[in-house]
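Run folding on both entries below.
>entry_1
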Amino acid sequence: MQRLENKVALITGGSKGIGFGIAAALMAEGMNVAITSRSLESAQEAAAELNKSGKGKALAIEADVRDYTSQENAIKQVMEKWGRLDLLVANAGIGHFAPVEELSLAQWHETIDTNLTGVFYSVKAGFEALKESKGYFISISSLAGTNFFANGSAYNASKFGVTGFTQAAMLDLRKYGIRCTTIMPGSVSTYFNNHVPNDKDGWKIQIEDLGQMVVDLMQMHPRTLPSKIEVRPTMPA
């Protein structure tokens, strides 16, 4: 089993939800974690909460995955702080759900630019650091990345793209010793799409479950690669 103490991760969209759950799980194993958000205040609040654990250190970074220079700056801050990057988790995402005839141009572009282009920008900016460490790239796709549904044209397009992009990137990057996995969750108890987690969410995947999954992937012997993982609630409501 691979030891994770003092290794370093960068998680986009890490101030809440899935990203926060992954950060907490990695830090519990002794990893240092940088979390990004478009809101520096949100990132700082989340980092302060994560740092209460006493294991690993959290760094707050203001960054927008839709801006390549912003992603380059995020990687630069991680390297200046810790000198290495062992794991990059492309987690930042949004959802606009409407019939095609009602979906606005702005909603389309925000969804694609955040959920798909943002994943490309993240791994592109982090490539040299991951190559140096023979690190890991994980994208957070969705079951919506292989299953289409009404009102989901923009979201489906973005997540189908993330799934395909990550699988192709896996074939490109493995020759450098970089492993790539896409995780495709179903219903997760998060703040996504204006939902507020509550007591009725017990049947859903919890953020700590996905955090444990990322820890397991990091600890797995590098000769073995689960390249695409579908995750769903055992018993949907």
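>entry_2
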Amino acid sequence: MRIGIILGSIREGRANEGVAKWVKDVAEAYTSDLTFELVDLKDYPLPLFNEAASPAYTDDLAAKEQQRPWAEKMASLDGYIFVTPEYNHGLPSVLKNALDYVYNELNDKAAGIVSYGSAGGVRSAEQLRTVLSEF
């Protein structure tokens, strides 16, 4: 099984990359039954989601070249660990935006959350958990 460790921030000077690499190291030391891969949102630039319908209700987005690499990457994974900072008492907009572009790719797959920041990133994790429950 392939587990994607999703870097939920694209800010310059972000701590997110170091936290995600630490999560990968811990996960790989814990089990050899799974393959872990870092998936950096910086590698999948997406415009602001402004579509007429959610990907849950249409497959039109699959035809758009800009969204295709992100959707294909997420579809190729069996589960996810989202590494998210807390920005302004919430999850980063880039992470929410990226999730708005997928639905079927994440549907019924397991996901975990590693958060950090003010109060341990609990507000970011809480918001992300609510969003992920839709999948």
